[in-house]
Write a structure and sequence with these properties.
Layout (H helix, E strand, L loop, with lengths): L6 H16 L7 H8 L19 H16 L22 H17 L9 H11 L4 H4 L14 H5 L5 H13 L5 H18 L4 H15 L5 H4 L2 H4 L5 H23 L8 H4 L6 H14 L4 H9 L5 H16 L6 H4 L5 H14 L1
Helix pairs in contact: 1-16, 1-17, 1-19, 3-4, 4-5, 4-8, 8-9, 9-10, 9-13, 9-17, 10-13, 13-15, 15-16, 15-17, 16-17
């Protein structure tokens, strides 16, 4: 399969643009959003005041994941051409190296003075525990399936050269460090798979069926090498039962999105149609709905997702990541990219992984 040109740049910028568009609409109802910003068809950047367009912890933590994986062996930011930074050393990305790098970067995010965007309590509590140096299986918030885990998984899908096992294992591990619920793991894996499929040219009509097939195939696959005894910490009877619960919740969310899409009502609030998105499987399904209801249009996807009554920034971040993976950088015009907070970090990661693909 041929990868979309500049898929990494498109997906990472799309995530940040969606995040920025949804940031000022989060916690507002539809009447309040319409009164302040007009219809979703009229929305565009910048929505924030000043010269810099601000993003939330969704983009911050996505960058933390990406830069942690670079440190663990997926290249080196800022390098181009056929050097160590030209492609990941897949063998270096082991559970031990990935876990150590993620822990380091999550703790750095915890203490970052810019970590002031109403971050999720699950992430904060788990990162405090991770800083103490205890096993991550003991640090994670075992019962949380909040959407914070799959908002940050996009970089995993964009690293060239990973095996399907590595991509799934890393996607689930980065989630499990903070969100120990099986649905958080499954939704993160499925989010990464959706991004990967789109980056390799998946047709829009095939996306939901292929995601459903992937979820069905993964129902009883517990990645023990990456997850260790997490299933036991959760009190599940066995590893397969533990992970199957998460996949089943994701399958139901995909079915909800598919049902909502049958009416093709672009004016309907995505959060009312599919779900508010505060939990992992709903955030994924509502973002997929927002992306597909506008036939994959890049700007339409982030606007439709941001103009929603639920977790608008998270839903729009994922919708933007999907749109960017599908279209590359083409529709994210310089006037939208240049004022974005963390633009330089996004460019560094994107240049590395697009060069290597």
């Amino acid at each position: 399969m041929k990868r979309v040109r500049f898929a990494a740049a498109g997906s990472l910028f799309g995530l940040a643009i969606g995040d920025a568009m949804g940031y000022p609409t989060e916690f507002l109802n539809m009447a309040q959003i319409a009164a302040k910003f007009g219809s979703w068809r009229e929305m565009g950047l910048p929505l924030s005041e000043g010269d810099i367009v601000r993003v939330t912890d969704d983009t911050q933590m996505a960058l933390a994941v990406g830069e942690a994986l670079v440190e663990a062996g997926a290249g080196e930011p800022g390098t181009r051409g056929r050097t160590r930074g030209a492609g990941p050393t897949a063998a270096a990305l082991t559970p031990a190296t990935v876990e150590a790098a993620l822990r380091k970067h999550f703790v750095a995010w915890l203490h970052d003075p810019d970590n002031n965007r109403a971050p999720g309590q699950t992430c904060l509590n788990a990162c405090v525990a991770l800083e103490r140096g205890i096993r991550w299986q003991d640090a994670t918030v075992i019962g949380s399936k909040g959407c914070g885990a799959n908002m940050r998984v996009t970089p995993v899908a964009l690293i060239p050269g990973l095996s399907p096992e590595q991509r799934a294992g890393i996607a689930q591990l980065q989630a499990a460090l903070t969100h120990g619920h099986p649905t958080a793991l499954a939704a993160s894996d499925l989010t990464a798979h959706a991004t990967w499929l789109l980056a390799y040219g998946c047709k829009l009509d095939d996306l939901l069926p292929r995601l459903r097939a992937y979820a069905q195939e993964s129902r009883h696959t517990y990645h023990a090498e990456w997850l260790g005894d997490l299933w036991n910490k959760a009190g599940a009877p066995d590893p397969k039962s533990f992970i199957a619960f998460g996949w089943d919740e994701c399958l139901r969310a995909l079915d909800t999105a598919a049902t909502a899409l049958r009416s093709k009502d672009q004016e309907r609030d995505p959060s009312e149609a599919v779900g508010a998105g505060w939990v992992a499987e709903e955030a994924l399904a509502t973002a997929l709905y927002s992306f597909l209801v506008v036939d994959g249009d890049a700007r339409g996807a982030v606007a439709r997702a941001a103009h929603s009554s639920g977790d608008s920034d998270s839903i729009a971040a994922l919708a933007g990541a999907f749109a960017g993976a599908k279209h590359g950088i083409l529709y994210w015009v310089p006037e939208w990219r240049e004022p974005l907070e963390y633009k330089d970090r996004i460019v560094s990661l994107a240049a590395l992984w697009d060069d290597a693909s």
